[in-house]
Amino acid sequence: MLLRYKKAFEKISMGLLSFMPHEKDVKKLLETIQEYETNPNWHLFLWKKDEDLVGLVGVRMDNTDGIIQHLSVNPSHRGEGIGKEMLQSLTSILHTSSIQPTEEIKSFFEKSQIEKEED
């Protein structure tokens, strides 16, 4: 289940973001979280599986287009389809005409789209 970010999720969000190559530095993590908390065009969601928050997806809205900036799944839950489920759930939560990835997550995004078509 995809949940909207709230301040209570800050530490777990920073932990999940730190799995992304460009978000390793604590200062950078704090800046990223601050941007999600203050910028009305940036939206952060966490994936809840059972009682645990195991994934995260961050989107920047550009008019009616959603641009996925961050996508991360706890390593112990990878390979379970959580990333794909998060992307599919985004379309029902965001009122957007399209969702596109940044270069950093483009290969995963394209792979998940191909798998979706095969289902």
Quick one: how many beta strands?
5
As an assembly, this protein is: single chain
Distance between the termini: 20 Å
State the low-pLDDT regions, or none.
none
In short:
With 119 residues, this protein is α+β, with helices and mostly antiparallel strands. It has helices spanning 10-17, 26-38, 82-93, 106-118, and strands at 2-4, 42-49, 52-62, 65-73, 98-101.
What does this 3D model show about the protein?
With 119 residues, the protein is of the alpha+beta class. The protein is 39% helix and 29% strand. The chain is built from four helices and five strands. The protein has helices spanning 10-17, 26-38, 82-93, 106-118; strands at residues 2-4, 42-49, 52-62, 65-73, 98-101. The two termini are 20 Å apart. The model has no long low-confidence stretch (mean pLDDT 91).
List the helices and strands and how they pair.
Elements: E1 2-4, H1 10-17, H2 26-38, E2 42-49, E3 52-62, E4 65-73, H3 82-93, E5 98-101, H4 106-118
Parallel strand pairs: 4-5
Antiparallel strand pairs: 1-2, 2-3, 3-4
Features:
alpha+beta; 39% helix; globular; single chain; 4 helices; 119 residues; 5-stranded mixed beta sheet
